[in-house]
Write the structure tokens for this entry.
Amino acid sequence: MRAAIFNGPHDIGVGERPDPVITHPTDAIVRVTLACVCGSDLWYYRGLSPHDLGAIGHEFIGVVDEIGSDVRDLAVGDLVVTPFTYSDGTCPICLAGWPSNCINGGGFGNHGIDGGQGEAVRVPFADTTLLKVPGSGHSQETLRSVLALSDVACTGHHAAVSGGVGPGMTVGVVGDGAVGLSAVLAAKRLGAARIIALSGNPSRQAVAREFGATDIVTERGDAAIEAVLAMTSGLGVEAALECVGTGQSMATAFAIARSGGMVGAVGAPHDVEVPIDTVIFRNVGLRGGVAPARRYIPELLPDVLAGRINPGRVLDFETDLEGIAEAYTAMDERRSIKSLVRVGGSMTPVVD
Ligand SMILES: [Zn+2]
């Protein structure tokens, strides 16, 4: 099969990889139809994080092509969405609601597991990982938003949930990438009254407003902190959502958080320090992590299918699998918020 290949920093190619086969009775083979590139893919793309050479990609939707003998909830032909990690759904960690930390689970597109940026993927623990997308004849816009549930929309939602966002609250969002913008959408969906988005980029500011941002702060660093405090009578925000993973973004999140408030952090940390003095002396909490997308997709999918939310709006660049290198370059150079990759054949499920 054709698949994207990581050859090293700044070197993404397309090549042949073995067709995936059923290895365990709980496996399913998914024929990928839509995939995308993630901000977290840019860390290894830029040589800032280690990654195996070979398969890449962890966000995809597609059609079930084959199932193992123990798969019960899925059928060949089903249109499915996958969270970016697979999980058994039965271990104590999964049962506690943390499938992204499943004892027997893992991620796609690394350590020998097929990547979503390819024609097909073997999905372990198919029944407790994949979710069938009900209905048929979905619009391209809807399918893009279903794809966004694979990671970015759930990660933005996790930032908001971890920050304790609720009705009437004042929220600040640090980061105007796909995750940050998805956090704005999530905060809006959870009933936040005021959402302050930190972004110096006009096209991303527009998406932030579309998603529900009430205020935009264009400054960065200390100037951004001053601006947010000035907008909130010196108090700061009740929930500060950190969606980048750098030391500066974490410092900004803690600085704009109101005393007694919460930081919800989902950025993959690179040189990040937690200001323990702020945690202790201003009672600012910190929660977050790798989003338990398998827990959130059942909650968010109905809103996507009903058109109540449109997280796919962040996918503003499109190519096919052969153009995958450009999909990475466009994001690396911030010409694109998030790149969509059209992979395989028809989108219509064979069996509804
Ligand atoms: Zn588990």
User: Anything to note?
Assistant: The two ends are 26 Å apart (CA to CA). Residues 346-352 have pLDDT under 50 and may be disordered.
